[in-house]
Amino acid sequence: MCWSGYALGQWPGQGSCSTTQVDFWKPPSHVNQTVDVHVPRDNLSAVLDLLQQHSIPYHTMIGNVRQAVEKHMQDNHKARARTAGRPARVNDFDFSVYHEWNEIDDFITDVQQTYPQIASLSSEAATFEGRSIKTLKLGKPSTSGETNPAIWIDAAIHCREWISTATVLYAIDQVS
Question: What are the residue boundaries of the Peptidase M14 domain, all occurrences included (predicted)?
Answer without folding.
Answer: 97-176
